[in-house]
Amino acid sequence: MGVRRSAFRPVALVLATGIAITVLATTGWAAAPPDRRPPTKPTVDGAKRTMSLRPVFTFGATDLRTPRAKMRFRCALDGAGLRPCARVHSPIGALRFGPHTMRVRALDLAGNLSRVTAYSFVVVGRWDAASDFERAPRPANPGRDRYGNTAWFYLYSGQGRTHDPATYVPLPTFVIRGPNWEVWHEPPDYSGASVGFNNSRVIFHPSPPELGHNAILGWRSPVTTSVLVYASLARSHLDCPVPANGVVWSLDLGNRTLRYGTLLDGTAATFTLTLSVTAGEALYVIVGDNGDSNCDSTVAEFTVETV
C-alpha cells in the first residue's frame, strides 16, 4: 500500500529570539490575479427630447468582479471635464434650450475605467397659451411660462386698430365669468376687448366698432432661437341669432404681419410656421371685429416650440 503524500510541507521560521519553529504551509494555493479588465461601456437611460431644464439620467454598467450597485461613474455635459457623479444624475443648473451631449464612463472597484458613452439629447422649450394661463386665485398679467419667465401678455390695441406694439395696453381687470372661463378685460365693463381662458383654449373678444380695440395675446421670447408656431382659431358663436360677418385676425412678429385672414361662421384658420426670434422679441395673436360686434367671440389654440 502506497503512502499518500501530504498536501503540506514544512517551512522553518526563525523568530526574533532566534528560536526556529516549523509550521506547515499548504501548496497549490495562489493569490487571485489583479483585476485589469474594465467595466462595460455604460448605458444611459434618459429622454432624447425633454421639456425639463434639469433632465434626469440613469447610468448602468456591468463588471466581472464589481457588483452593479458598487459601480462608480464619471460624467460631464457638453465640453466639461468628466467628474464623479451618481448613478441617477441631474444637472446642477438649468440647461439652455437646444442640443446637448452627456458623456459618461464607469469605474470599477479596482479603478479600471470603461470606454466613454456619448448620449445626445435636446432640451425643448414649449409654450402653450392655454396651459400657461395663470388662473384664479393667482391670476397674472403679464403671465409667466412654465420656466418662470414673464412671457404672456393680455392686451388691447390703441384707437384705430393699428398694429403697433407701442400702442398696446395691458387688460387691467380680471374676472371669472363661469366654470373654466376666466378673462382679462378692458374697463369699464364687459363690453370692451377681452382675452382669457375658456375650456382649455384661449378666448378673444374684440371691442365694438365704436371703441376700435383689438383683443391681443402676446408672447415674448425669453431666448434667441428658431421656433415652430402652431395656431388654430375658430368662432365660438356658431349659433348667432343675429346677422354676423365674423372677425379679422392676424399673427404679428412685432409690428410685422406674418399671417392674416377673416374668420366666418363655420370656418377655422389653422397654420404652422417656422421662424427665428431673438430674446425679447414678441409674437402677437390679434382678433378684431369685422365691422360689427355681433357674436365675435373667438377661441384659439396657440403654441410655440423651439426647433
Query: What is the overall pLDDT average?
Result: 89
- Which architecture of the largest domain would the CATH scheme give at its second level? Sandwich
Count of individual domains: 2
- The counted number of beta strands is 25
Top CATH class of the largest domain: Mainly Beta
pLDDT below 50 for ≥5 consecutive residues: which ranges?
1-27
Radius of gyration: 34 Å
The secondary-structure class comes to mainly beta
General shape:
elongated
CATH topology of the largest domain: Jelly Rolls
Helical percentage: under 10%
Mind summarizing the main beta sheet? 8 strands, antiparallel
Strand content: over 45%
Order of helices and strands: EEEEEEEEEEEEEEEEEEEEEEEEE
How far the N terminus sits from the C terminus, by CA atoms, comes to: 89 Å
Given the structure, what is the number of helices?
Answer: 0
Describe, in plain words, how this protein is organized in 3D.
The protein has no helices and 25 strands. It is an all-beta fold. The chain has strands at 8-14, 20-26, 43-45, 49-50, 57-60, 72-77, 83-85, 88-89, 98-107, 117-123, 126-128, 143-144, 150-156, 169-170, 173-178, 181-185, 194-198, 201-205, 215-220, 225-235, 247-253, 256-263, 268-277, 282-289, 298-306. The protein starts with 7 loop residues before the first strand and ends with a strand. Strands 11, 15, 16, 17, 18, 20, 23 and 25 form an 8-stranded antiparallel beta sheet that branches. It folds into 2 domains: 1-124, Sandwich (Immunoglobulin-like), CATH 2.60.40.10; 127-306, Jelly Rolls. 27% of the residues are buried. It is 0% helix and 47% strand.
